[in-house]
Every structure is written in C-alpha cells, then in structure tokens.
Amino acid sequence: MSITENALRNLVAGDLVDAVEGGVREVVNPATGEAIAEVPEGTQADVDRAVAAAKAAFPGWRDTTPGERARALLRLADRLEEHGEELCRLESANVGKPMGVAREEMPITVDNVRFFAGAARVLEGRAAGEYMEGYTSMVRREPIGVVGQIAPWNYPLMMAIWKIGPALAAGNTVVLKPSELTPLTALRLGELAAEILPPGVLNVITGDGEPVGAGLVRHRDVRLVSLTGSVATGKWIARTAADTLKRVHLELGGKAPMVVLDDADPAAVAEGLKVAGYFNSGQDCTAATRILAAPGIYDDVVEAIVPAVESLRVGDPAEADDLDMGP
Ligand code: NAD
Predict the structure, then answer these.
(1) Is 100 left (phi over 0), alpha (psi -120 to 50) or beta?
(2) Catalytic residue among 285, 303, 310, 319
(3) Which residue would you say has higher pLDDT here, 235 or 139?
(4) What is the 79 CA–ligand 1 centroid distance (Å)?
(5) Residue range 236-242: average pLDDT?
(6) Is the pLDDT of residue 278 over 70?
(7) How far apart, in whole angstroms, are the C-alpha atoms of residue 182 and residue 234?
(8) Is 88 a catalytic residue?
C-alpha cells in the first residue's frame, strides 16, 4: 500500500526512527480515500526525545558561521531539486493537488531554501551607541535555541521550508511537526536533510495537534514556537505559550475579499477569481473567499463568475495532468 519504497519514519538526532511507543497512523489519499502510507503516530515521549536531541545539537549549530549554515541549506536545496518530481508525486497523492500545481510549487520551495540561506548572511543590526556616559550599548542578534514548528496541511513541503529555513539559517535547532493529514513530504525532507545537517539540528516528528503539537508548545526547553495554521489553533498556542513565556510566531488564516467596483470588467473579474479564489482547491490563507461587488455591477459579476467557476476541471490528480482542482 505504501507509495514510497521505504516506510517513512521520524528524524530524531540524525536517526530515522519509529514512534517511541510504537504508534502508527495510516495516511490517506483524499482523492480515493485509500491508505497510501503508514507513518509514526507520536506521543509526548516523541516530543521529549526530539526536543532533547535539538537541545543537545544547539551549541554546535549556534557556533557555526552564517556562511557554514548557508552552505548546508544550499546543499539541502540542491537535494530537494534533484528529488523534485518524487516530492511532487508524494505531495499530489497526499494532499490531492493536481501534479501541475505541485510542479508550480516545487521551484518556489527550492528557491525559498536558497533565499533563507543567503538572508542569514546579510542581517542588519542597529549601530552601537553611547546612551549612558562611559557605556557602549549595542544590539546583537543571537539564535534563541530550540524552535518548535507546526505546519498546516495545505502546502506541506512549502510550509515546512518556510518554518525550518529561517530558523536553521539563524542558528537555531528545530523540531518540526507536519500536519497529521499530510506528513509525507516533510518526512522525506527529514530523510534528505539527515544526509546533510548535523544530527539533532533538524528533527521531524509526526502526530496529532494534541499531544505532539501541544507538547511542543508546553515544553520548557522549546524557546519559540511557530505555527502556520488556523486562527483557533493560533489563539490556543498564544495562550498556552504564555505559561512558559515562550516566544510565538503565528501565520494564520484569512477571509480575503475581492472588491469589485462599477467600472470593472466582469470577465476579467471572473478569470481573476478562478485563481484568487480557487487555486489549491480554494484552500489558501490568501484565498479570495468573498466578493464585495458594487450595486451597479453586481448582476453582471454573478453572471460572469458562475460559468467561470463551473469551467474549473476537478478530478483525481492521478488520472489527469491538467486539472485545476483535486478533491
Ligand atoms: P490547523 O490549525 O487545524 O492545524 C495546523 C497545525 O496545527 C497542524 O499540524 C495541527 O496538528 C496543529 N495543531 C492543532 N491543534 C494544535 C494544538 N492544540 N497545539 C499545537 N498544534 C496544534 O490548520 P490546518 O487545517 O492544518 O491548516 C489550514 C489553516 O492554515 C487555514 O486557516 C489556512 O488559512 C492557514 N494557513 C496559513 C498560511 C499563512 O502563511 N498564513 C499558510 C497556509 C495555511
């Protein structure tokens, strides 16, 4: 049943491992409802093991230069590029993305790794100054330590990169938890990274929001927690992180309107909406999920968008390459 040659396992301390308590979860292809892989189902014990590995790896990684970290990330980008087609297939089967969409995302994902690799070498700081007589004050940017990172289901690999790229480039060590629904490309990312990064610098563990994501949020040795996900999860994390005075970085959902004024071209609005509202099955934090149309153009907009949306090609990504939407 597995779509990968080997079972995908967690990455902890440089090793590919099963869940501490042996749990397993079936991962489903949403286009067919069929199980396509089994992955470890984590518990608090997996959180503890991974955080300990990241903590142990931190002093060594912190003391590397930005140039050394950039070189490692650039190698990782090359590896992802070499495995691009395989990663697209995994993403398509696990998320239900048409292959065309997965292939559009892959070069952006790889380029993001390269961007973060370079960005950490050109960080700017404020100039030092004498604000009190006899004292020089300065701002020095330092990595914070272990960063817990929690990703959503809709762009699994790209969101994993947005999380780990800046954190690793800045000298932090990471425990990444992908969505329990779409963990396959993040686990493959872990495998590829294991050949490049020192043990423990990046750890990837799978499991539900509670206990694995929440375990990261509550853990005393995690210094910052970063979520890309829903507003409800973000609110819970912000509240819970306060107990250990963790820093929090949240990228949440939206409810973006498309505003249509009377002098707009309804046909252009309809074409724009096909992308802005329906790309990635409309499962996008910036998706245009509402249309606010001025009274003079309202009827014409409705008349234009209904056939435009009906023209979207929907289907099983495994069966056609030119779909607009999977399940
Ligand atoms: P979600 O909030 O249900 O889950 C996101 C992640 O949080 C998952 O890994 C989940 O396991 C974990 N989680 C759930 N409960 C948790 C808890 N109590 N503690 C810690 N972790 C917990 O979101 P989703 O459905 O996977 O993703 C879709 C959402 O993400 C949408 O709202 C979308 O707009 C948003 N999103 C935002 C961006 C952005 O860049 N702002 C990008 C992609 C998606």
Answers:
(1) alpha
(2) 285
(3) 235
(4) 27
(5) 98
(6) yes
(7) 19
(8) no
251 in catalytic set: yes
Q: 120: closest CA among 165, 77, 173, 66?
A: 66
Angle at 59 between CA 58 and CA 62, to 5 degrees: 80
**pLDDT at site 192:** 98
- pLDDT-based confidence at 134, cuts 50/70/90? very high
Angle between helices 66-82 and 99-119 (to 10 degrees): 170
Pair type for strands 288-293 and 256-260: parallel
Confidence category of residue 140, pLDDT binned at 50, 70, 90: confident
Give the integer Cα–Cα distance in Å for 160 and 175. 11
39 Cα: distance to centroid of ligand 1 (angstroms)? 19
Q: What's the mean per-residue pLDDT of the chain?
A: 95
Residue 165 Cα to ligand 1 midpoint, Å, equals 18
Amino acid 6: pLDDT: 67
Residue 293, token pair as written in the block: 């149309």
Kindly report the protein residue whose alpha carbon is nearest to atom 13 of ligand 1. 209
* pLDDT for residue 321: 80
As a whole number of angstroms, the distance between CA 298 and CA 131 comes to 60
Residues 69 and 308: their CA atoms lie apart, in Å, by 47
Strands 173-177 and 202-204, how do they pair? parallel
- The long-range contacts involving 213-219, CB below 8 angstroms and separated by at least 24 positions, are 213/150, 213/177, 214/240, 215/44, 215/47, 215/48, 216/47, 216/51, 216/148, 216/150, 216/175, 216/177, 217/148, 217/241, 217/246, 218/243, 218/244, 219/47, 219/48, 219/51, 219/148, 219/244
pLDDT digits (tens, 9 = 90+) for 77-113: 999 999 999 999 999 999 999 999 999 999 999 999 9
